[in-house]
Input
Amino acid sequence: MICVGERCDARGRARQKLCEIESALATRFNAALANGDIKISTRDCLRLCTTAPVIRLEPSGDVYAGIEINELLIEINKTLAGERS
Ligand code: FES
Output
């Protein structure tokens, strides 16, 4: 879940990050996206405003601000592995 609210999307940073995430997930986790194991959603504000886009992973609820795509993919991979074990 990525916040595209006014503060997180200052200068279009959140929507740029959303595009990067969509592209990276389609490349790395295409099957998981297709079968619904991964879903990308947006929110207008997660009430954790920072100067970087805020991203929340579910079901853990872990929150990241300014996370790099590669780091996010690692966290998503860990989440998927945890759900399947
Ligand atoms: S605008 Fe993104 S958390 Fe508030």
Remarks:
- The chain has one domain: 2-84.
- Strands lie at 2-3, 42-43, 54-56, 63-65.
- Residues 3, 5-8, 45-49, 54 surround FE2/S2 (inorganic) cluster (CB under 6 Å).
